[in-house]
Amino acid sequence: MSLSALTIHETRDRLRRGDITARQVTQAVLDRIAAVDGKVQAYLWLNPDDALRQAAAADVTKPLGGIPVALKDVINVTGQPCTCASKILQGYIAPYDAFVVRQLKAAGAVLLGRTNMDEFAMGSSTENSSWGTTRNPWDLARIPGGSSGGSAAAVAADEAIAALGSDTGGSIRQPAALCGCVGFKPTYGRVSRYGLVAFASSLDQIGPLTKDVRDCAMLLNVLAGHDALDSTSVPRPVPDYTAALGQDVKGLRIGLPKEYFIPGLDQEVEATVRAAVRQLESLGAEVVEISLPHSEYAVAVYYLIATAEASANLARFDGVRYGLRVAGDDVNDLYGNTRGAGFGPEVKRRIILGTYALSAGYYDAYYLRAQKVRTLIRQDFATAFQKCDVIVTPTTPEVAFKAGEKSADPLKMYLSDIFTISVNLAGICGISVPCGFVRKLPVGLQIIGPAFGEESVLRVAHAYEQATAWHKERPAL
Amino acid sequence: MNYETVIGLEVHVQIKTRSKMFCGCATEFGAAPNTRVCPVCLGYPGVLPVLNEEAIRKTILAGLMLGCTIARCSKWDRKNYFYPDMPKNYQISQYDLPLCTGGAVGSIRLTRIHLEEDVAKSFHFATTSGVDFNRAGTPLMEIVSEPEIRSPEAAFAYLTALKEILVAGGISDCDMEKGQLRCDANISVRPVGQTKFGPKVELKNLNTISGVRRALAYEAQRQMTALQKGEQIAQETRRWDDDAGKTVVMRTKEYAHDYRYFPEPDLMPVVISDAWLAEIRRDLKELPEARRRRFVAHYGLPEYDAGVLVANAAVADFFEKAAGQNPKAVANWIMSVSDITATPIQPAHLAELVAAIEAGRISSKQGKDVWAEMLATGQPPGAIIQKKGLAQVSDTGALEAFCDQAIAAHPKSVADYRAGNTAAINFLKGQVMKLSKGKANPQLVGEILARKLLGGES
Amino acid sequence: MDLAHVAHLARLHLTDAEMAQFAAQLKDILGYVAKLNELDVTGVEPTAHATPLTNVLRADEVRPSLPTAVVMQNAPAQDRDLFLVPKIVE
Q1: Which of the 8 DSSP states describes residue B102?
Q2: Which of A247, A264, A401, B34 has its CA 20 to 30 Å from the CA of residue B251?
Q3: CA A470, CA A229: separation in Å to the nearest integer?
């Protein structure tokens, strides 16, 4: 078995025992990438020599010493490009490290390479990348999900031991579900956003994509923490998330929101998720029916707030200080030409929608109203968490769809985030873990926790995972 | 038809802080282009702003000095527009909950004071413009007056007073040449007695306080003349050309004013507690006008001296610490240098020097030498006097002996003096000074000699 | 929506094809988000921030700036350490 198939904890154990070297692990992963990435296309940028150099110098006594981790191409690493899968950032070389990158480096990780994504994190299939689409390792005719599709596909295909993604409306959890791996969105403010190219400032979080829950906890330990350079970063101590693992779930109350089990949900996906819930019941958890009454409004709220914030966040891409420049006769021409050529259609659509939602005469009806409904959604969760400890739902309404199937209809694409979006709006945490297969494609179980409830989520996720074998499945590539 | 002028002023003031509003780049003026920049103030992908506490404190201080109401809770907003001097193409500013509201400069009420970040500086060439982001991100206070200014002269007075207060408070150096204080004006005219405002014209490119007065005078006249001819005044932005002495319509910025303000998601609100406010109040400087009056009344200083001292708050503080028994003398010493606080001299030392001269320990001439040494070394006057052995001999016994010596040695001068040539005593005085190696107290010597000469002692 | 106006606010030059396509798609999306009007939001406070922090401030200390050479490396057009743009006419 190739070393590339190992998890973080397995790799770490063997590195510390001296069975293997860090260089061997990174080499194995690079070999795997060479073998399969032609088909999967998870990676946008790879520097094998640099990765091997890092591996050779790695200190395996450190928490992630020698572990090769891939980064979604939205996180700044000094000296590396950071295109966000957009033409408008062609040529940009980052002059600074994101907070999470400093943390990874301090923990001894090997920064392996940069993975594909939907442009500026806007999308649910990675089809919005300017550099071509990534394929789902379980079925190369299908999409891996998005926007962290490259990271999820890389982990699923053993093209990385672990990866980082970013999640604004489900962009870690949804691709994790569709690719059969674990994906975690931390509580808003748990992980610093400094160095993460902003999409929606009040919703974005960086998080891990891993092969199992233990790996996820280990990576979270390194990523989490207060950062003085991020004013939204919460100054709350970081517990050892691995201590939440291996605990039983007897008496733990699991809330099932009735609004999530609706006609749009694929029947087989529903059956698979309900079976997972029964599994949790057999482990001693108590199922409680709850209601999140404003769920049906979440997608609408999201597409007003996220696009409004994005319209401002993406205004800096103007051809003046970095990235693509397309000449113009005057300054406005420069902007219009550069942004016209540099942004893909989905990004443009969202910028227009967001600009409109904030514009004179429309602010109250769109942006302000959306922020009020957001409050109602947050209150829904606060109320629900009085009756349960975690909330369990399907991660996605369906399994991986075929490339091209939804790309012509933006609205249809938006609705694939229907189960993940509320978690971002409420600023709480959530994980997706594999819970089965439908028509040979992975299904994800979402476990949602209250703000800073990472430990409860990991506890339930781990208990479920250890009672099943889904996490050991690998695609036949 | 009589018209009245209605003027409102919007003043932007760069706050004196070491670092920028949202990042740690230095705010120094005059650095080489793009040498005081970082990913944050360049608007790089992935960066985030962090509030500079001192900028907030100084804004609140300004608000207190101007009698504003300080907000209990203040927030930040994005003001969205595209321009090459804008690194993010939105400016972080304050929209509906600014730090200060109300207040006044003299009799002109203020609407508000808020805090925001300054934009970059551009230089214009033949076909291109070059942008230097050193200035981008400097903390900037925007002070908005109510449209209550009624003449160009009143505008001049407003700006002069505002500048004086901000400088005295250590809030800004307000140097217009360095762009530390910038002013835009809104001006309209209306028939006297009409309450409705006429269409307002915004004036830009006002680079000096007197330029503001000139521009407003021109524009008021332009508008009145137009109205008298029956023309309409267009609500527009006009650029003041100081050389030509007129305002010109600026290229209209299409859709210039849909700023699409929304709350800044990257910055948290500021809650100003009573405790914090009390702490800031402790730094509250007496307004210059009041301090000037107090210096005249309490210390008996002439108006001129008081004016010079209060122009710089730190100098005025120094004066008050050193004033002692002879404030006029202290003031004179302070005014003999351009900035006493830039010298190594301590207030207590200056007080000591003045007292030593007053008590006759040293002569005023010696005082000047001691002062020079104090300036050079920062040593206290006592030590210098000691070291140089300057202490005037005021011991009358010793002086009597020197006088007797001089009188004995120069009988001709004695005779001249007694014959009515009073100036002859000066020669004798000089001899005594020589004998005492310059240390004799000249006043005492004069008295002793006079007594001896008149008394007929030989 | 006046698409041309909004595109200008956002400084996006759209092709005719994009204008046509987006107009239709945005109409659909706006139609969808209109469902928010079903709700009564009287008395509901808008969510200002995702976390209830206040007074997140930093001390007024100078930190090293970026070396100008590094800054200029990313500049699409520059001359003597200034970022160049087409002439700005006031």
Answers
A1: -
A2: B34
A3: 39
- Is-catalytic flag, A130? no
Domain ranges of chain C: 1-39
Domain ranges of chain B: 3-276, 286-377, 396-454
Q: Which of A190, A295, A351, A353 to mutate to probe the C interface, most C CBs <10 Å?
A: A353
CATH number 1.10.20 given to C1-39 = yes
CATH of domain B396-454: 1.10.10.410
47-66 in C: which are within 8 Å (CB) of A?
Answer: 47-51, 53, 56, 58, 66
B2 phi-psi bin (left φ>0, alpha ψ -120 to 50, beta other): beta
Chain C residue nearest residue B41, CA to CA: C65
Q: Nearest CA of chain A to the CA of B63: how many Å?
A: 25
pLDDT tens by residue, chain A, 477 residues: 899 999 999 999 999 999 999 999 999 999 999 999 999 999 999 999 999 999 999 999 999 999 999 999 999 999 999 999 999 999 999 999 999 999 999 999 999 999 999 999 999 999 999 999 999 999 999 999 999 999 999 999 999 999 999 999 999 999 999 999 999 999 999 999 999 999 999 999 999 999 999 999 999 999 999 999 999 999 999 999 999 999 999 999 999 999 999 888 999 999 999 999 999 999 999 999 999 999 999 999 999 999 999 999 999 999 999 999 999 999 999 999 999 999 999 999 999 999 999 999 999 999 999 999 999 999 999 999 999 999 999 999 999 999 999 888 888 888 889 999 999 999 999 999 999 999 999 999 999 999 999 999 999 999 999 999 999 999 998
Q: With beta carbons under 8 A apart, name residues in chain C contacting B268.
A: 49, 51, 53-56
CA dihedral angle for residue C70, residue B86, residue A89, residue B255, rounded to 10 degrees: -160
Q: Is the dihedral of CA A193, A194, A196, A201 positive or negative?
A: positive
pTM metric for this prediction: 0.86
Q: Quick check: B129 and C62 CB within 8 A? A: no
Cα of C67 vs its chain's centroid, Å:
27
Q: Which residue has the tokens 């296309």?
A: A41
State the Cα–Cα distance between residues B408 and B411, nearest whole angstrom: 6
| CATH homologous superfamily of A3-252+454-472 | Amidase signature (AS) domain (3.90.1300.10)
Find tokens 């922020």 and name the residue.
A371
